User: Fold High-affinity zinc uptake system membrane protein ZnuB from Tritonibacter horizontis.
Amino acid sequence: MTLFDDFIVLAALAGIGVAIAAAPLGCFVVWRRMAYFGDATAHASILGVALALTFDTSILAGVLVTALLMAGTISALSDRGYAMDTLLGVMAHSALALGLVAVSFLRDVRVDLMAYLFGDILAVSLTDIAVVWIGAALVLVILWWRWSSLLTATLNPELARASGIAPHREQLVLTLALAIVVAVAIKVVGVLLITAMLLIPAATARTFSNTPERMAVMAALVGTLSVLGGLLMSFRLDTPTGPTIVAMGTGLFLGASLITFLRRSTS
Assistant:
């Protein structure tokens, strides 16, 4: 195997791991209209990177803890009457700004901000891949374990309460899963593109799905195709890999939307 084959295969494995974890979770983000929530959690991860470097601890742990704290703060403030869209907008941009300012104070630490903002999938190591796939497996186990309760709480909170399911608890489960995805995806696609990996495959899969389970599987497939197609296009065109993967996903979304439009026009 050549050196080229090595890093392309590693990049593909890392990207597929993120796609498999993010896509089913992205379905819940779409159903619950939580796009801003995903943004706020992802943007907070830059602050987590800065804190981890400051205290010389694991970046994965720093990002995970910060993402969970951000999610907990949003949940607590939303219960006090703040408008959710305003609150999420303020928290998302504030966390990103604070993180970038904090990184600027790290004089003795060399930080590649572009890698954290847009990802550096071509530089992943075997350790990174192990972290991604362990995180993906954990997210899938959480979703499998809580699937029925999460779905009921998402589609009909009143029915969930009547069935003994606490919607707030299921929200916390989703928050935990989202924090894990952000923590493992930051090296692959970066802070600014994580939400795109959550939303675009799920939105594309919605066109071809008539059940929640089918949508989750289709979203994972779309995410995987976006990763593989984006890697190939990035190599061919010499473009940034993370953004190219998202661009490929956008192309699939536009194609799905066109198919839906043509179906409706001919029916």
Q: What stands out?
A: The two ends are 51 Å apart (CA to CA). The mean pLDDT is 85. The chain has one domain: 3-191.
